[in-house]
């Protein structure tokens, strides 16, 4: 399970997520994403991804220029987060450098 951010107003660690919004029960502040960090990327289960995380592919993906697809269950280590539609930049053994969409991966714990 991903760690929830502290409240940016009162620094309370008792925050919780409710329908995509973070809520602080102590001061009542609500915010939509982590305000201190610029780029927010979530995996297919809604877990927050960060630089250097390891993820696994959740479905077979066609790869342009390759006759073989990227198979479900492929583990990808040391991801980098980038702006854009394909927001994960990585290197996959057997395929080389690649960009992935976060909706097709899940974070490894």
From TrEMBL:
<dbReference type="Pfam" id="PF08274">
    <property type="entry name" value="Zn_Ribbon_YjdM"/>
</dbReference>
<dbReference type="InterPro" id="IPR013987">
    <property type="entry name" value="YjdM_N"/>
</dbReference>
<comment type="similarity">
    <text>Belongs to the YjdM family.</text>
</comment>
<protein>
    <submittedName>
        <fullName>Phosphonoacetate hydrolase</fullName>
    </submittedName>
</protein>
<dbReference type="GO" id="GO:0016787">
    <property type="term" value="F:hydrolase activity"/>
</dbReference>
<dbReference type="InterPro" id="IPR013988">
    <property type="entry name" value="YjdM_C"/>
</dbReference>
<keyword id="KW-0378">Hydrolase</keyword>
<dbReference type="InterPro" id="IPR004624">
    <property type="entry name" value="YjdM"/>
</dbReference>
<feature type="domain" description="Protein YjdM N-terminal">
    <location>
        <begin position="3"/>
        <end position="32"/>
    </location>
</feature>
<feature type="domain" description="Protein YjdM C-terminal">
    <location>
        <begin position="41"/>
        <end position="107"/>
    </location>
</feature>
<dbReference type="Pfam" id="PF03831">
    <property type="entry name" value="YjdM"/>
</dbReference>
């Amino acid at each position: 399970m991903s760690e929830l951010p502290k409240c940016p107003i009162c620094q309370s660690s008792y925050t919780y997520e409710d329908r995509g919004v973070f809520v602080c029960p102590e001061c009542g502040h609500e915010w939509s994403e982590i305000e201190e960090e610029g780029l927010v990327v979530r995996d297919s289960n809604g877990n927050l991804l960060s630089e250097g995380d390891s993820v696994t592919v959740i479905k077979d993906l066609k790869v342009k220029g390759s006759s073989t697809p990227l198979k479900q269950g492929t583990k990808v280590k040391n991801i980098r987060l980038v702006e854009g539609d394909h927001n994960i930049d990585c290197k996959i053994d057997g395929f080389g450098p690649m960009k992935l969409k976060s909706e097709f991966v899940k974070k490894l714990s």
